[in-house]
Amino acid sequence: MPRRSVEDIACLQWQVRLQSFRITRPWTQLAYNYTEKYQICLKDRRSSSFIYSTLLVFLLSTGIISSQEFSEISRLERMSPTLDAHQNETLKHHDSGSSLFEIEDTNLSRLLDKPRPLSIERKRSFDERSFSEMSISSPPRQFYRNSENSSRVFDNFGSLYSSGRSSVGTPRSVTCVESHPIFAEAWVFLQRSIVHFRGQPVGTIAALDHSAEELNYDQVFVRDFVPSALAFLMNGEPAIVKNFLLKTLRLQSWEKKVDQFTLGAGVMPASFKVLHDPVKNYETIIADFGECAIGRVAPIDSGFWWIILLRAYTKSTGDTTLAELPECQRGIRLILNLCLSEGFDTFPTLLCADGCCMIDRRMGVYGYPIEIQALFFMSLRCALNLLKNDDEGKECADRISKRLHALSYHMRSYFWLDIKQLNDIYRYKTEEYSHTAVNKFNVMPDSLPDWVFDFMPTRGGYFIGNVSPAKMDFRWFCLGNCIAILSSLATPEQASAIMDLIESRWDELVGEMPLKICYPAMESHEWRIVTGCDPKNTGWSYHNGGSWPVLLWLLTAACIKSGRPQLARRATELAEARLLKDHWPEYYDGKHGRYIGKQARKNQTWSIAGYLVAKMMLEDPSHLGMISLEEDKQMKPQMKRSASWTC
Ligand code: GLC
Prior knowledge:
Layout: H1 6-21, H2 27-42, H3 45-61, H4 67-78, H5 85-95, H6 106-111, E1 122-123, H7 128-137, E2 162-163, H8 174-179, H9 181-192, E3 194-197, E4 200-204, E5 220-221, H10 222-234, H11 239-252, E6 257-258, E7 261-262, E8 271-277, E9 282-288, H12 300-317, H13 321-324, H14 326-340, H15 370-386, H16 391-415, E10 416-418, H17 419-426, H18 450-455, E11 461-468, E12 471-477, H19 478-487, H20 492-504, H21 506-509, E13 518-519, H22 524-531, H23 551-561, H24 565-578, E14 588-589, E15 595-596, H25 605-619, H26 643-646
Antiparallel strand pairs: 1-2, 3-4, 5-8, 6-7, 8-9, 10-11, 11-12, 12-13, 14-15
Bound molecules: alpha-D-glucopyranose (GLC).
């Protein structure tokens, strides 16, 4: 093997990195990002110019950028003060429309002789129009460096195309496979977890762990299937997702009873299982709508995830026919009827029983838990995209719009906590009456827990766990805050503040294994009262402050959306170091997530899928579009509560 020069190696490294990003639209920002990085680390302007030329030619020759884009980047480049004259000459040369290979430097053709051709086939997806309109009104944010020297890339990934690759069974992402061997292993496990019904793949089993009692871990859970589905979509395998959506829709139409009581028509199952009768050689499905679940609670999140997944499928494949089926339209309306019906509510948030979501045991998450409110918000926005413009669709869309308006106002105003708001609550007066009350819910300042004063950084904030009369649950919950970012329930400033908090409380929230399901844990007396002495939910275990690898995909998506992919990379590296070795546990225990969970299942599918989705999104950030919604300008906050909203 011939010895390579430093420049050659640097160029090759660029090529590899570029491949790993599969750059499409964000090429300008990423190119600048890399240039900047190299200028910083090489401190040699000639070298970096050389590399920059190589980069441009590489992008052009592999078809990642068109000649028009090449010209545009050249124009921008000429405005950059960091380039030397030689570079400008080269770029001008190309700007004038000359052939790519007329570039003078002979080294370039040598370096470029083996770029792997990338076929970047992008499909315009169904809600592209609204996204691109948004990106016109809000130009991509330029990357910049924050105090911790982390580069941020612009956050308009929601407007990107999702890839429509095809063929089944193996990971498409060569770069990810090369970059870490556990990526390939994870795919093998994910494929193994697929559940078939009458010959068709319909979902993935919760855990493939025969060493522990199976309970219901041998079922296909709706919420657990979401990261699997995203992984399949990202890998160009939409069939299993479509089958799943149709199968669960069928289950929705079953009559659902707990004892003598009939559940609402829109309720979606928490999970289902395929039963095989070996005598008749016939398969049937049984489903659990909460009648078998611990605590007998119906899963409110299932319906929301179903709508979110239907939108992800539609956006990823560009196939609108599934969502347009009358039964799908009806399914969406039935789910939302459960939430939009009029009653005694004085709040636009959704009143819930404990344990109706990912945290499916008693954990003091009854009332108005952030997880459900954020998913509710996101599914309402997805439904707006999916509903047809017929009479029934329009009627439902009107109700949705009104609710979204009130919900975003309520959440952004009353669930949001930052240092200023915390200080305001600390100084609240109580027993106020009438419309002029500041402390609307009559929250007692004495109910503020000690930990929250230390936990709250000077810069940063989050949506708290719950707000109801005289009750604020100050715990930080991962899923709700990440979904708030992805759905744009959080304003861009709030999204940034949430990320600031995660960065500054990294040890507490990520520690040695991403990511805390909630923070902090309840212990001793509080644990006894709130969990009812649940031995599975002791302090820093399971739902009570345990660390759940599945949450990595949500963190990654939120990081990419808010322009901090490097944070997600850090978290992914932590997960990579242990997950395969530990056999993909369901959760980890301890303040820093150092120990495999007391009762954690091994080969937990969503731990595997969560990792795959995180990796694939980091490799190709355009995937984010299937699970992210841009800000709706009409839902701008009407009131400003504190500094972190405006900074
Ligand atoms: C546990 C989790 C729940 C998950 C299920 C299957 O019950 O709390 O969120 O869906 O396991 O993995």
